[in-house]
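> example.struct
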C-alpha cells in the first residue's frame, strides 16, 4: 500500500501574483507537464509542441473575453516558471488539442446527503489518463478576491483548474466528452475553473451557458446541502441532468437528449467501455442506496468488473505503448467537511490522504 503526498501550494494575491507563485513553486513540474504533453500531442495527433501552440493561440481572445483574470493568472505562471505565455495556454488547451483521438476515460458519481448513510454529500471520481502525468500532480489552495470562494483542487502542474471543491461547499468532477470536432472558443479547463469558482449551482450552470465553448465535457457538480447535477457541455449546446434518485453518475458519452439529437457522440467510439462503466456504477449505487459512506465510495471506485477497462482502470497491454490508460488517482470529496480524499494511484492498491483548507 502506498500513501499520497502531493505538493500543497497556496496561491494568493491578485491573479498575476497567484500565477507567479504557482509558476515559481512548480517550475520543474510544469516543464514535465510540457514534456509529457509534447509526447502525447505527437502520439495522439501527430502534432509538434510548436504546432500545438499555434492552435492554442486561437483560444486566447475567447479566454480574455470570458475570464480576463485567468489570462493574467496564466501570464503569472509563465513569468514564475520562466516560460512563454503560449506554453501555459497550450497546457490549458490540452483537451482541445487531443480531442479527436483520445479522452480521459473517467468515471464520476455524486451521492446526496439525503440518501447517504452518514448524511454527507459526496462527489467522487477516478481520473483515467496516461500514468506518467501523475508525477506532475499538485494540490492547489487558491485564495481569490472576494466575493469569489477559495478553491481546493488537484491539478496537473501548469493547468489552472482540476477536480476539487470550493469554500462555499461546491464540489466539481469532470468527464471528457467529444463530438469529434471543436471550434475556436473557451477551452474546457477554463470552463472548469469558472465552474469551480461558483458559489451556487445556478452560477455553475451560468458559467457554461455564457461561454463560447471550444469543445465538450461533463461537469458533475454537488453541493454541501446535497444537490447533485451533471452539466453536459458541447460547442453547440449544453444540458443539465438532476439527481432525482439522490445519486448521479457519468462516464464518457452524452446523456442529454438535446445534445444527442444534434451532435455525433465521438466519445463512445473512442472509449466504448464508457457504457459498461456507467451501467456498473449505477448498479452499485442502486444496490447500496441508504448505505453509502466514504468507505463504500472507495469500494465503488475500486470495482474491477470488465477489467482492465473497468471503473478502476489498469493498463491494457493490448493497447499501444504510450496510449495505455489507467486510474492515475481517485478522489472522494466530503462536501460537508470541505475535504478531499485522494489516492496516488489505483484506488484498489493505494491509501487515500486527506487535504483541507489551510489558514
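> example.seq
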Amino acid at each position: 500500500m502506498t500513501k499520497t503526498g502531493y505538493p500543497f501550494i497556496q496561491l494568493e494575491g491578485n491573479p498575476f501574483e497567484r500565477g507567479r507563485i504557482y509558476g515559481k513553486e512548480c517550475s520543474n513540474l510544469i516543464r514535465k507537464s510540457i514534456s509529457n504533453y509534447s509526447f502525447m500531442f505527437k502520439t495522439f495527433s501527430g502534432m509538434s509542441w510548436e504546432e500545438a501552440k499555434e492552435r492554442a493561440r486561437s483560444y486566447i481572445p475567447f479566454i480574455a473575453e470570458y475570464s480576463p483574470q485567468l489570462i493574467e493568472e496564466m501570464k503569472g505562471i509563465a513569468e514564475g516558471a520562466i516560460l512563454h505565455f503560449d506554453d501555459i495556454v497550450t497546457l490549458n488547451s490540452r483537451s482541445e488539442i487531443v480531442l479527436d483521438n483520445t479522452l480521459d476515460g473517467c468515471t464520476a458519481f455524486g451521492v446526496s446527503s439525503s440518501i447517504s448513510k452518514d448524511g454527507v454529500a459526496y462527489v467522487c471520481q477516478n481520473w483515467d489518463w496516461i500514468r506518467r502525468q501523475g508525477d506532475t500532480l499538485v494540490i492547489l489552495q487558491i485564495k481569490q478576491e472576494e466575493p469569489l470562494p477559495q478553491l481546493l483542487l488537484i491539478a496537473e502542474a501548469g493547468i489552472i483548474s482540476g477536480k476539487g471543491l470550493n469554500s462555499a461547499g461546491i464540489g466539481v468532477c469532470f468527464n471528457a466528452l467529444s463530438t469529434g470536432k471543436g471550434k475556436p472558443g473557451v477551452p474546457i479547463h477554463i470552463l472548469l475553473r469558472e465552474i469551480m469558482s461558483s458559489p451556487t449551482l445556478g452560477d455553475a450552470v451560468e458559467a457554461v451557458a455564457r461561454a463560447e465553448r471550444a469543445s465538450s465535457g461533463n461537469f458533475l457538480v454537488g453541493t454541501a446541502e446535497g444537490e447533485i447535477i451533471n452539466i453536459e457541455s458541447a460547442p453547440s449546446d449544453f444540458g443539465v441532468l438532476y439527481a432525482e434518485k439522490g445519486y448521479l453518475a457519468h462516464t464518457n458519452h452524452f446523456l442529454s437528449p438535446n445534445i444527442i439529437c444534434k451532435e455525433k457522440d465521438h466519445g463512445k467510439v473512442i472509449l466504448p467501455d464508457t457504457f459498461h462503466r456507467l451501467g456498473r456504477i449505477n448498479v452499485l449505487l442502486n444496490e447500496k442506496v441508504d448505505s453509502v459512506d466514504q468507505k463504500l465510495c472507495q469500494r465503488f471506485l475500486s470495482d474491477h468488473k470488465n477489467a482492465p477497462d473497468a471503473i478502476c482502470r489498469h493498463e491494457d497491454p493490448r493497447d499501444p505503448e504510450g496510449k495505455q490508460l489507467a486510474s492515475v488517482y481517485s478522489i472522494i470529496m466530503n462536501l460537508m467537511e470541505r475535504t478531499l480524499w485522494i489516492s496516488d494511484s489505483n484506488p484498489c492498491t493505494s491509501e487515500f490522504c486527506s487535504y483541507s483548507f489551510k489558514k
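> remarks
The mean pLDDT is 96.
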